[in-house]
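Our consortium's second objective concerns turning raw sequence data into structural hypotheses that experimental partners can test. To show how far this objective has progressed, the report includes one record in full. It was chosen at random from the queue rather than selected for favorable results. The single chain below, 544 residues long, was entered without modification.
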Amino acid sequence: MIPPVEETPSAKKRANGWPTTDSDAPKTAAASTRVGLSRLAASRQRRNKRLQLAGRATMTIFAVIALLVTGGGWSYLRSTANGFTQVSALDDHPEDVVDSGAQLGDENYLLVGTDTRAGVNGQVGAGTLDDAEGARADTVMLVNIPKNRSRVVVVSFPRDLDVTRPQCNGWDNDKAEYTSEVFPSAMGDKLNAVYALGGPKCLVNVIRKMTGLNIGHFIGIDFAGFEAMVDQVGGVDVCTPKPITDGILGTVLENPGRQRINGATALSYVRARHVYGEERSDYDRINRQQRFLASLLRGALSSRVLFDPGKLNGFISAFTSHTFVDKVQPTDLLTLGRSLQKVDAGAVTFLTIPTAGTTSYGNEIPRESDIKAIFRAVIDDQPLPGEKKSTPAPGSIPSAQPAPPKLFAVDPGTVSLLVSNGSGTPGVANKAATKLGNQGFQIYNTGNYSGGNSEVATKVRFGSGHEAEAATVASSLPGATMEEAKDLGGIVEVVIGADFAGTVRTPTPVGDPISNVSVTVSSAAPVTLPSDLEHVNAADDTCK
């Protein structure tokens, strides 16, 4: 973990150099001499109008993107393109990614709030190096944004989650670099200790293996940075049914109800895990963190920081000064933010990894089957508990369902087939593959169907964009259905079921419309999520 960085003279110079003119607005005399408006007031009016036209800008990663896409940060970010501190966090481990083809276009950010007592962090109530050396992953959140940008899913991981640490190089937190020391793989490690020992790279590898998500971006932030950013947006509203007093941090909130808290109080609010009256320690803390971020997201665009270039400049400066990233550039955040401008708060869902008790040494035991189900739902963009999709405006007419696409046969020699036996009868796949090969199809491989052999009907599975190839194959197999799959890429899979009579006929001629196959495809079966899955929706306001 990089020690907190005090604002350098160059950073102060950049802050003082915030552009005061609207470079994108037309410079007309009418604009600056409008009756009743001074030149300064007219300039502010143009800036406010531009910010308002940005609409409901995105709500995600600590509201950073929401602030950047409003327009005020464009010039600043372009002038500080190298302002982020880059670290090595992302390795290529394709064997741990589930259905990589299904995740194409998705964006996955691993966010880490680090517990370090070094530098200015020791001055914000975080404790000192005498309490704890090094840095730990105090807060770990994985943000998934699907290709269609229809929602944002934020999954929190308990800091004491029991994990198997892979072999990792040591991590020198003070120098923010890896050492030559190599630590062997070990079972029964705490998640936050993985970061302490092996740094961002080791943590990313653990999370990737657990979730199956293709993590493409890493963002870490320290205590001082969190506090500074909250102060820059003028504080955040929180709501608590009772006062919050922590056995270590002391009184966090003296009174119940809705109240606006500053950076120092917010830091204690999201860190407290020994609160009197709370019995779940880290889980109650995670719930507070999620509700805090939900409130920050709801209030981001109403914050005066968006209409005050100085405050916006200060927020971005605090963010860049106290974060360390991999594969994150200002242009990445801006592009992502623009693609999320129509996302409502109700489409932002916070989930918490479920566990089943603790080990003898206090680690939270992950419920692995439930975790797999959660991330299967995330990958397939299936509905999540508490999720609120946007509804049509009053009086609007729902759009008609699109007609099924008209498909035309392709050359069988361009289709690569995986022929799988789902019938339970040995040898059926090989016989079908021979017959399909005689019709000109290229046989990639044969084997048993991984989806099981119970009551499987003959079907043709295909990836998105390969509908015509799949329909050409299905035209050779009487009664075969088509099923879209997200794990095949350019391969088309023929699943031979118990209903297969052995007939393989000549496929539809190349270029002809395919009329003997239904082009209606079945979507992925919904997964069953745990009934006790903890979730928070960003649109929920507990004070209402």
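The partners drew two points from this record. Confidence is low (pLDDT under 50) at residues 1-37, 46-75, 117-134, 390-403. The two ends are 39 Å apart (CA to CA). Both points have been shared with the crystallography group to help prioritize constructs.
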